[in-house]
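lol forgot to send this yesterday, sorry. struct tokens for the thing we talked abt
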């Protein structure tokens, strides 16, 4: 009688090996997602790009401006925070209308686009939202940050009023052609042409705003810059803090990046104000002025508009 052979039982993988395998697979999936996200961010015809396969409940949303970018290469805002686990979204205004014509595939008006983005975000585990943008993207960060109930809004040299007559009365004629065309089309939503009125009216949560701008848009000594006028109109808006710098012009975000300050601004917002120095004071708050002036050795501090002492140079 022939003895029946039995196959040897395979040993189960050790728990530690399984954990390493799952981690490796998860990292591979994240790399693929990040590669796709990078390609989409660099695609100038992509309205919304997503990177949600990250174990984080914080979402960083960046908004492009009138040149379909952010004053610096758009991915700079993400590479500056690559070491922080954060979900990411990049939004472009392909219709070049300060988002008043909505977002391609996400509604035909600013409020409709905000509702669509909120529905998209609700599909993922998001507890905190931080919005970022510069120029018209800074306008978008302020408007959408308010409607999406963001925890923090970082806005660099934004337009805060886009009603053609109002902005012209300020002496700002940089956007005459596109704004007049939008007004002729009746594409501008009057509820959102002046953020000084819209933000307090629509703010439904404890959204905090940080607005960064330069003292001058051209040469020093030529009077207040146009960006400064846009920024200082929002003094007194609940949750608003203004930070004025002596150089950088309309591309103040680039100056902050080159000085190493942009990285700190983003990290502080995404890490929910970790322990350390107290946050910057409200505009006009008393006490001593903040640390060094912009341009001093080391990363420049965040200079507050209205702080005592001369403006940074």
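and heres what i got for the seq, position by position
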């Amino acid at each position: 009688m022939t003895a029946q052979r039995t196959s040897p039982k395979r040993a189960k993988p050790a728990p530690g090996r399984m954990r390493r395998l799952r981690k490796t697979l998860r990292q591979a999936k994240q790399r693929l997602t990040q590669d796709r996200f990078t390609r989409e961010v660099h695609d100038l015809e992509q309205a919304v790009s997503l990177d949600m396969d990250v174990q984080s409940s914080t979402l960083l949303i960046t908004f492009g401006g009138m040149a379909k970018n952010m004053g610096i290469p758009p991915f700079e805002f993400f590479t500056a925070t690559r070491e922080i686990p954060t979900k990411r979204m990049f939004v472009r205004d392909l219709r070049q209308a300060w988002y008043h014509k909505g977002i391609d595939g996400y509604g035909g008006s600013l409020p409709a686009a905000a509702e669509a983005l909120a529905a998209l975000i609700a599909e993922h585990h998001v507890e905190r939202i931080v919005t970022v943008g510069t120029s018209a993207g800074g306008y978008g960060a302020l408007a959408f940050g308010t409607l999406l109930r963001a925890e923090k809004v970082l806005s660099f040299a934004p337009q805060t009023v886009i009603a053609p007559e109002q902005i012209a009365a300020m002496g700002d004629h940089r956007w005459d052609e596109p704004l007049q065309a939008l007004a002729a089309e009746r594409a501008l939503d009057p509820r959102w042409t002046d953020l000084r009125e819209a933000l307090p009216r629509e703010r439904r949560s404890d959204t905090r705003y940080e607005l960064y701008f330069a003292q001058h848009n051209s040469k020093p000594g030529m009077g207040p810059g146009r960006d400064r006028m846009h920024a200082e109109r929002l003094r007194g808006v609940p949750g608003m803090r203004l930070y004025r710098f002596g150089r950088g012009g309309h591309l103040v975000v680039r100056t902050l990046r080159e000085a190493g300050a942009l990285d700190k601004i983003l990290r502080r917002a995404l890490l929910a104000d970790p322990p350390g120095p107290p946050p910057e004071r409200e505009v006009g708050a008393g006490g001593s002025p903040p640390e060094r002036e912009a341009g001093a050795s080391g990363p420049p501090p965040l200079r507050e508009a209205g702080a005592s002492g001369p403006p940074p140079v």
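Confidence is low (pLDDT under 50) at residues 274-313. anyway ping me if u want another try
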